[in-house]
Specification:
Elements lengths: L1 H20 L16 H14 L12 H7 L6 H6 L7 H25 L8 H7 L11 H15 L4 H28 L22 H11 L4 H10 L6 H9 L13 H16 L38 H10 L1 H10 L13 H5 L11 H10 L3 H11 L9 H8 L5 H6 L4 H16 L3 H11 L4 H17 L13 H11 L5 H7 L1
Helix pairs in contact: 5-7, 7-8, 8-9, 8-10, 9-11, 12-20, 13-14, 14-16, 16-18, 20-21, 21-22, 22-23
Amino acid sequence: WKTCKQLLETAERRLTATFEAKGRKLESVCRHPDGIQGFSTILQRMSKILNYSHSSHGPTKAKPAEDKVAGHLNCSVTELLLTCYPALSEDCVTFHLSLSESLEQITKKLQTAIRSPEAKGNILNFLEQTSPRSQDPEGHTTQNQMKQLLKNLDQQVHDIENLTRAVYVRSVFDYINTFAAVLYRSMNRDMDQFAEVKVGNPFIVLQKTPSQLLAHLLFEKPTSPDRMFVLLHKEELNLSIQQIIVNCCCERLPLWNTQKFSHGAMFLSEVTELIEEHTKHCLPDLGIVFPSSFHLAEENLKDESTDSSLGPYSLIPSALNFIKSRSKLLAVLVCLTATQGQRALKHSLSWKERWSGRTEAPLDMEPIPKECEQLMREFPILERFLSTMAEPLPGTHGEAASLANSLCGNPCTTLLLSGLHSAIAVSTLVETFRQVLCDAHWLGALKILDLYGGENEEFEKLKDILLSCAVVEEKEGWRYLFRIRNAILRAKLVLHCSEKWPLDACLDVL
C-alpha cells in the first residue's frame, strides 16, 4: 500500500514538472464533478474498496459519495482474493503464482507430446517398436511431465472445484496409459495379456480416435478380435468391437420408423403424381380427389451418422467369426449389408508380420451369401419378412435358397430393412413403382404402398384409387371392391361396373 502511494505521488510530481517545463498549467476544473478527482481521491476510493464489507451497511449512515462507491460493490477485495488464494500472505500468493506458471509450461510440453513427430507415419508401428521392456517408461520425458502435472494440481487443491479438476485429469491420464497398453498388448500376441505395460509416450494415441486405432489393428495388422475384446473388457474400456466391425464393413442401417423421416413426404408426392398420370385413361369420372398436401406427421431426429473415417474395409473371416460368436442375428445383418471396401494395406505390415503370415484375406461376395443362408435358417421370421419385403422389387427372389444370394451386396437390402431412410431409397422405390404402373399391375403397386407407405390417411386414399383401377380393369374386379375404404367410391364403382359383371357376382356384392 505504501509503495502504491509513493508511485502515485511520484507520477503526479513528474506529470506536473513536465507540464510546467512546457509552460502549461494543469486544469483544476473537473468536467465530471461526480467522478474521480486527482490521485488523492483515487487513494481514498481504493482505501474504501479494500476496507469495504457487508457490515458497513449497519446503522451508521454513509455519505452520499461513499454510497455511490458502495453501490457497485457486493464484496470487498479481500473477500474476492480469498476465493483465489487460501491465505493473503506474500508467500502464499507467490507460491500459487509459481504453480500457475509451472502448470502452463508443463501443459505446453504435453501438447508437443501429442503432436510428436516420431509418430507422423503409422502410430501402431511406432507403438510396437517402442518396447516398454527395453527402456524405462517411468524415466520418459512425457511420463515425467504427466507426474509433474498431477503433483502441481494436487498442490493447488484448496476447494471443491480444484479437487474435481485434479481427479478428472488423473482419470484422463489413467485412460490414456491404459488404452496405449491395451494397443501394445493386442499387437504382441506372444505377450501375456495380463502383463503390466506402460508406454513411454502414450499421448501419441490421441492423434486418432480409439475406434480408428482399433479398426487399424483389426484390418491392417491384423489382430485377433477375441484378444482385443478380452483386453478391453479386463481394463473396463467402453469400446465395442462389434460396433467397430459393423461401422467399417457394412452399409449404414438406421433402424427407425419410416414415418419419422422427411423422405416419406417425398415418396408420397412422387407416387401421387405417377398414379394420377397412369389412371386417367382407365378410371371413369367418379369424382376422385388426389392428395395435394404432402406434409406427413414426422419427428425431427438427429442423423446419427457413423464415423466415415473408419473405413470402408472388406469383411475378414476373423471379424465375421467374432460377430457370430456374440450374436448370430447380428451376423446375418452383417452378411446382408457387407460392402467391398479396401483390402488390408500391405505396406502397413512389418517384415516380421509378412514372414509370420499375419495377413488375412478378405471375404469375397461368394462365401458371404452361403454363410448368410446357413445363419438365416435359425431365424425363419426374419427370412419370411425379407422375402415379403423383397417380393415387389426387381432382382430379388422369394425362394429361401436364393434369397441370401439375391440380397447380399444388393443396394435394395437397406431399403428392405430400413424403409425410406434416404433419397436414394426413395428413388429406387419410385422407379420400381413406375414400372409396375406401366405394366398395369395394380395389385403390385398396391403391395408396394402396403409395405413401404405406412398407415397414413393420404396413402390410404391412393390405395383406394389403385383398388378402383383393379375393380374396373381386372377380370374378376368385384373381388377387390370391399377392400376400398371409401363407401361412396365403392357405390359409384358398383353402379359403373354392374352391367358387365355376372349376375351371381352382382348378387354377392349386394
